[in-house]
Amino acid sequence: MSGPSTYQPRPGVMKWLEDRLPIVGLVHSSFIAFPTPRNLNYWWTFGVILSMMLVIQIITGVVLAMHYTPHVDFAFTSVEALVRDVNFGWLLRNTHAAGASMFFIAVYIHMFRGLYYGSYKEPREVLWILGVIIYLLMMATGFMGYVLPWGQMSFWGATVITNLFSAIPIVGDSIVTLLWGGYSVGNPTLNRFYSLHYLLPFLIVGVVILHVWAVHVTGQNNPAGVEPKTEKDMVPFTPYATMKDLFAASVFLIFFSWFIFYMPNYLGDAENYVQANPGVTPPHIVPEWYYLPFYAILRSIPNKLLGVVAMFGAIIVLLFLPWLDSMKVRSSRYRPLGKRFFWAFVVVCILLGWLGGKPAEGIYTILARFLTAAYFAYFLIVLPLLSRMEKTLPLPNSISDDVLSKSDSSLGKTVASIAVVLGLAGTLVMGGLQNAKAATEENIPASQQWSFAGPFGKYDRAQLQRGFKIYKEVCSACHSLKLLAYRNLADPGGPSFTPEQAAAVAAEATVKDGPNDAGDMFDRPGRVADRFVSPFPNEMAARAANGGAAPPDLSLMAKARSYERGFPQFVFDFFTQFQEQGPNYIAALLQGFEDTPPEGFTLPDGSYYNKYFPGHSIKMPPPLSEGQVTFDDGSPQTLAQYANDVSAFLMWAAEPHLEARKRLGLQVMIFLLILSGLLYFTKQRIWADAH
Q1: Which segments constitute the Cytochrome c domain (predicted)?
Q2: 475 labelled as ligand-binding?
Q3: Distance CA 438, CA 436 (A)
């Protein structure tokens, strides 16, 4: 479709190079002079958005790999050290983690656009198949990447998903052993996944090149679904499509930046801020949101082997779509029944995603089975029957006629309808995910007024200092802060200790060091470069001193705890940038002890009743009481004040770069808004004559 290059190099080096390696001519014919249908709408821009996201993921992934340690003992802490100690490490991590979700959002829109406009039909069958292969590689890459931080959900997600292969007759157990590198998920598993996660993106790049090549051979499909007939049907790729793509990409980056700078934990799982522990199983193991529809299909079938077959079959069936739908009319705009069934299929996929986050029980399982049947019926029954029975509307004579007739709905209506669908999808999927994670919660902590909340939030320095004092005098007797260094107390955006004050705090600690020249270990005063010293030499000592329950490390506690917000509150949370579940929970927990359990509740020996703790039975005695800690600034010495102050301090311990993140986010958002405005008016000027 692109044809021979019309590029004419100037005499000199460029002509010499073009005669021997015509790469400039190839770029010119493929991305400048390439003829593009003039009626393409904004849904065609997601191909470029996906290319942009792939580049972002590879660049950030390569840099992250430079600081990552693929070992079960060090993987978790290496990720946190990267976030805390590497310059803009938090930006790299947030971009890469949120980028995975943005990648899948874009690819799902890209795939549904292909389904709606029939982009899989002759002569573009190979183009579609290559796209499905890219999707499969993305799913494998995303899953392996999710395992690498080695948090609780990473470990147990890897255990559950890899165990699925054991359902394969004869060779299943051998495949699982090969994946694990042993008889359980462990260090060999992590190394395998790290290697493959690094390799697969470059394999995706190779298939993307083939995908783009296929586009240039067959030409692009268009909303009308008719092939170009004259030159009036086409416009050069540059500047027309290029400018539209740049504008769409800038708008998408605004959406992306919202998560990077203001909602970095919204799409993640709080459980993954707890280091992997093979001895403790999370109450609800769920994958990332973009796998939930297939997870629902898997769980809807009681037979393990059939569930695995159905889950993979739900993706493999896409490969055969060009032959299952033999209707000559491509676009659903001219297929009244096809359009209705398409939107019904979209609703089925959304509902399956919602059910994937629900417990696999009762009505949820029944609904999942019904929707699984509807999913496969769309491909195997509905599309083949419609190909033979449906009466289509008249097609436009050409792409030019389609543009002039303006038969498609207006951009405003299209955007509004898609926004409703995406809003419904996000609402149901995230709602189901939160319900699954917090199904055992009975009491929801009250939201506190935090100084660090919102787009302009900052830590209250006096509150952080009071919170540190509470930690030092009360909490440090049992709980460690192993990811925090004494020097961090004097870092910008923290409690505003002077370097001398931070050194004095460090010197109060005793650090085991060595060996010395005699080969012996010795004790020395702490230095500002040291991490906060743990109150116990090892976990067994901590358990022995606390009735068999090891007090958790508090470094990430403010991000490792969450609770269900309920519908529609969690939808509003997106717009209000609510990320304070952790501090709310900690403050409520510290005040949630009750001397007398409710009637009918049996409290185990050696435990205490807390109405906010999951299961309500906690080994920790009430740590705080009125007047326990003296404040020099005259703040109230009450339990509520103590709870809020130490919660704010723990939030800073978990997010020491919060202020820098929000400050940079404001600058980036302003830049992107201005850039998008300039690109929009430039695009309008360029396209004025084409329309």
Answers
A1: 462-594
A2: yes
A3: 6
